[in-house]
Design brief:
The complex is a heterodimer.
Chain A lengths: L1 E5 L3 H13 L4 E5 L12 H5 L14 H6 L2 E4 L2 E7 L4 E6 L2 E6 L2 E4 L3 E2 L13 E2 L4 H13 L2 E5 L3 H12 L3 E6 L11 H13 L3 E4 L3 E8 L2 E6 L2 E5 L1 E4 L4 E2 L29 E3 L6 E2 L6 E2 L4 H13 L15 E5 L2 E7 L12 E9 L8 E9 L5 E8 L6 H10 L4 H5 L24 E6 L2
Parallel strand pairs in A: 1-2, 1-7, 2-3, 7-18, 9-16, 10-11, 10-16, 11-12
Antiparallel strand pairs in A: 4-5, 5-6, 8-17, 13-14, 14-15, 19-20, 21-22, 22-25, 23-24, 23-26, 24-25
Helix pairs in contact in A: 1-7
Chain B lengths: L8 H15 L3 E3 H8 L3 H14 L7 E5 L3 E6 L5 H10 L2 H12 L4 H8 L3 H15 L5 E3 L2 E3 L2 H15 L2 H8 L2 H14 L5 H17 L8 H7 L6 H15 L8 H12 L5 H10 L5 H16 L7 H20 L9 H12 L1 H17 L9 H21 L3 E6 L4 H15 L5 E5 L8 E4 L13 E4 L6 H15 L1
Parallel strand pairs in B: 6-7, 6-8, 8-9
Antiparallel strand pairs in B: 1-3, 2-3, 4-5
The chains are: A alpha/beta, B alpha/beta.
Chain lengths: 445, 489
């Protein structure tokens, strides 16, 4: 069996490794557009954070690992066209065009950070650094710039703002919604972060949409938003990523948002063709409406599931809770599952509880603000958000599992945990007992 | 634009034949029909034959008999003229073109000639004709695409699917869980309740929006200018939050203007309930163009009718409808005339009087001047908005007229007295705002009609008295009407 995988980022690599494990005899070929392998998207943030000494250290897989698993890879290869009836991939490597046949095809072509709406955003002075070569260029440009404007208040934008402020750069951040990180957190949880950002000297421009970017010279860029404009040295584009799939044939059906339609086994509408990672929509849980959730966690998990279903449909994808965790402006922030604001898109009646809890039993313990979102009637946990100055990130994984395994708040109160006064209170943070800590407010809607 | 613009000339004639028959009790002579259609007898015969060939689909429920002298229509109780229109529209090539355009956003001539099984030249001709009608919407079909401002394109599709094309089919074919959920989300985010009849409208609008979203080059130049006074509007803000959040869940880079499109739509059509709309009027900027025109028009109406004040609920209702009218005038161009304008106008004049119609003209002139809408001959939008003003004024006059009690007290032989009183009552019944009966001595009347001068001053108490010169004469009737008008203002 010849398995061709388009794209060697997280989804493609995970799929390749899983195919190898399941099918020791299979020929596995990865086709990757980039000329280097396994760069961690936004690895530049690790470098700015002094976590790595060289951008090149931001790798999640090495060529040696792939060689070891006898996974073939072609770098610098652009797929031009698919013919899913004849099972052929047309591609270009260097100057040559060539054709490769397959028995099974996995599309893991990823996504890019581009804007089609903001005119001028294609210019090279507008930095995107998801990829290695982009990161190299961005690194130099940022080093030469004093004032940097970030478009988009998502995870990438906020992390970049924090790291750049720490380098004493002047930072302006523009977000079209009323508050940053709106996909992951409800507004009341974000207040301490926004305060910290303002205190750190970030200029926040909320509810403003960038219409165009004009590059006047090497050092001066004008960002136009509504009736005003910002003159800046460099711009970082932190908008939502989207897939860029120009090579598909008509057999492969798409959603309205141009992502590939797949079933729960990640099969596309073309036979023996699978799609994973940032190319597809995922559901919150089986049966729910699908959404686009381009996170690495989803890329890896869909890669594994597709690999398991190559010969026959056997494992259904369990769904995505859009779990995230990060550390920005001195705050650890984590979220999983549904936010209260997002629940308005569903028919579920939800209730929420906001708690402020000490993270351990020591006199000067930090607190964590935690918001529970649950189904009103059944008390089924649907989502949780946390913000704290203490590192509570790993706790979100516990809650993600609780949602995936359909735990109610009542059941979670009885969750087993360790007690160690330096690390926990009477109860663990993730045991939602109401007399623990201060209940900030309860929403009875 | 009119519904019949989607039909060919001979089809329009055929539909007209049906309509004339319905208006004339089902039977007309050839001579009368020829006069009306202004065609030759041979051509009328052709039309009648063509109609007959179409009728089998109704399985005997509609029958047309003609013998060279007379034409008669038979329709069973279960069919209406509406279904006949629908039959003709369902076979219209122009409608097929619009449907194809909506479904595929783009077409090549080859694709479309094959799909519709017509020649290049006839396709070009039909597109050309369509474009003359689309002109008032300021949009046109060019290079296989619909070009123009995005708001105008969606507005046209909305009018088309709501009034012309069978919208139930559209909803059945294209509405899915996503759209149902989106309607629900609108309710949740805007904290409103959408009534079932309004839900259909919203459903169609969202379907249209969904199909347009992936379109690459949308134009919003006009819309941006029109929205300038509304960027801080509280309803717009809610819509903006909803739209941004909604699309953040898909791999779609949504235009800032997407929320503006929905804002215009939500205010121009009855989507919100009167109650939810009222909540909005309490927080909207009263100086913004639409709200300030609403107020101006309400005041004009109050002054015109010399009302001291309108009842609270009536005023609320008035604002509700006026905002729809004014939002349309503010944002949109063109309309589809779903009612035969001239006929409606004639009917309205009959029922509610000339004065109301001419006052509605004044209101329309005021508002179109304010929004600098040129009153080009045949502007369907202005025509339709005029009808709405008229209806609104009618509502007010119905609500505000105090009923005038009239007693008829004829002095003559009992037999005559009974018949003539009854005839007089019948004759007066069509007059609005009156309650007329035979005089009863213990009741209070505003006006008493009699044929003899009352013997005593107090016979009719406070009532005004009119002495008939000649019972049932038009002279008396005119005088009586004048008195009624006087009494009711």
């Amino acid at each position: 069996m010849k398995v061709v995988i388009i794209g060697a980022s997280f989804a493609g690599i995970a799929a390749a490794l899983e195919v190898r494990k399941k099918h020791p005899q299979a020929t596995i070929i990865l086709l990757e557009k980039q000329t280097t392998l396994g760069y961690i998207p936004n690895g530049l943030h690790l470098y700015w954070d002094n976590k790595i000494k060289d951008l090149n250290e931001a790798r999640f897989v090495t060529t040696a690992q792939l060689d070891n698993e006898q996974i073939h890879y072609h770098l610098g290869v652009t797929v031009k066209k698919l013919n899913t009836k004849q099972k052929l991939v047309h591609y270009q490597a260097a100057e040559n065009e060539d054709i490769m046949s397959y028995d099974k095809l996995i599309i893991a072509a990823g996504s890019r950070q581009l804007s089609e709406k903001i005119t001028g955003s294609h210019h090279e002075s507008v930095l995107k650094y998801k990829r290695y070569h982009e990161a190299q260029a961005a690194l130099e440009k940022v080093a030469d710039s004093q004032h940097i404007t970030i478009i988009g208040g998502g995870q990438v934008g906020i992390e970049a703002a924090d790291l750049l402020r720490r380098q004493e750069k002047q930072v302006t951040l523009i977000e079209s919604m009323d508050y940053v990180l709106f996909k992951y957190l409800d507004q009341e949880l974000i207040l301490p972060l926004e305060e910290a950002m303002l205190k750190a000297g970030v200029t926040l421009k909320l509810r403003q949409t960038v219409s165009s970017i004009e590059t006047e010279s090497e050092q001066s860029v004008t960002v136009h938003l509504g009736n005003e404009s910002v003159i800046t040295d460099a711009v970082i584009l932190g908008v939502n990523v989207r897939p860029h799939l120009t090579f598909l044939d008509e057999q492969i059906k798409l959603h309205m948002d141009q992502t590939i339609k797949v079933d729960q086994y990640l099969r596309t509408s073309a036979e023996d063709v699978f799609a994973v990672g940032d190319c597809i929509q995922l559901m919150f849980e089986p049966g729910e409406e699908r959404e686009y959730v381009p996170l690495i966690n989803n890329a890896v998990r869909t890669g594994i599931v597709a690999a398991a279903n190559l010969l026959k449909p056997s494992i259904a994808f369990k769904g995505s809770l859009r779990t995230i965790g990060t550390h920005v402006f001195g705050h650890y922030i984590a979220s999983t599952g549904m936010t209260e604001a997002e629940s308005l898109f569903t028919n579920r009646a939800v209730k929420t509880v906001l708690q402020k809890i000490k993270v351990n039993s020591l006199p000067n313990a930090e607190t964590v603000t935690i918001k529970w979102v649950y189904e009103a009637e059944s008390k089924l946990l649907l989502g949780a958000q946390m913000i704290s100055k203490a590192n509570i990130l790993e706790k979100i994984n516990t809650l993600a599992l609780a949602i995936q395994t359909k735990q109610t708040l009542e059941e979670l109160k009885q969750k087993d945990y360790f007690f160690q006064p330096a690390y926990s209170q009477m109860l663990s943070t993730t045991n939602p007992v109401s007399w623990m800590g201060e209940r900030v407010e309860e929403d009875e809607n | 634009m009119k519904t019949e613009h989607f039909l060919e000339k001979n089809e329009i004639r055929e539909v007209t034949i049906f309509k004339q028959l319905v208006l004339n009790d089902g039977t007309l002579t050839y001579g009368e029909m020829l006069d009306y259609l202004n065609v030759s007898k041979a051509s009328l015969e052709n039309d009648l034959d063509s109609i007959t060939s179409r009728l089998p689909i109704f399985e005997g429920q509609i029958r047309l008999d003609y013998d060279g002298q007379q034409i008669s229509l038979y329709m069973s109780d279960r069919v209406s003229l509406q279904q006949i229109y629908r039959l003709y529209l369902s076979q219209s090539v122009k409608i097929d073109i619009i449907n194809f355009l909506f479904k595929h956003q783009e077409f090549s001539i080859v694709q479309l000639t094959q799909e519709l099984a017509i020649s290049d030249s006839s396709l070009f001709r039909k597109i050309k004709e369509l474009n003359t009608y689309l002109k008032e919407f300021n949009i046109k079909i060019r290079n296989g695409q619909l070009h123009g401002e995005e708001l105008q394109i969606r507005y046209f599709y909305f009018q088309f699917y709501y009034y012309i094309e069978d919208n139930l089919t559209l909803i059945r074919q294209r509405s899915d869980k996503q759209i149902t959920q989106a309607v629900q989300s609108v309710e949740n985010f805007l904290q409103v309740k959408i009534a079932p009849e309004n839900r259909t409208r919203l459903n169609i609008w969202l379907l249209i929006s969904k199909s347009r979203i992936a379109n690459k080059d949308k134009k919003y130049k006009q819309l941006r200018e029109q929205m300038a006074p509304y960027l801080k509007d509280p309803l717009y803000h809610k819509i903006q939050v909803m739209v941004l959040r909604y699309f953040s869940r898909y791999s779609v880079e949504v235009d800032e203007e997407e929320a503006m499109l929905h804002f215009a739509f939500l205010l121009a059509f009855p989507i919100l309930t009167e109650n939810d709309f009222h909540e909005y009027t309490l927080i909207r900027d009263r100086h913004a163009p639409i709200a300030s025109l609403d107020t101006y028009i309400v005041e004009t109406i109050i002054i015109h009718y010399k009302f001291r004040k309108l009842p609270y609920m009536l005023e609320r209702e008035l604002y509700y409808h006026l905002t729809h009218i004014h939002t349309r005038l503010y944002f949109f161009q063109g309309d589809i005339e779903i009612y035969e304008y001239e006929e409606m106008l004639a009917k309205e004049k009959q029922v509610i009087g000339k004065n109301v119609v001419s006052f509605a003209h004044v209101l329309l002139k005021t508002s179109s001047d304010k929004f600098m809408r040129a009153n080009i001959e045949g502007n369907s939008l202005l025509k339709m908005e005029l009808l709405k003003y008229i209806s609104l004024l009618a509502i007010i006059s119905f609500e505000m007229t105090t009923e005038i009690r009239i007693g008829i007290d004829l002095k003559m032989d009992d037999l005559y007295k009974q018949t003539l009183s009854q005839l007089l009552i019948l004759k007066m019944r069509p007059i609005n705002g009156i309650q007329v009966e035979r005089f009863k001595p213990n009741k209070v009347y505003d006006l008493v009609l009699t044929n003899e001068k009352p013997k005593e001053h107090t016979t009719y108490k406070e009532a005004r008295v009119y002495i008939l010169s000649e019972i049932l004469s038009s002279f008396d009737m005119r005088n009586i009407q004048a008195i009624i008008q006087e009494l009711s203002t």
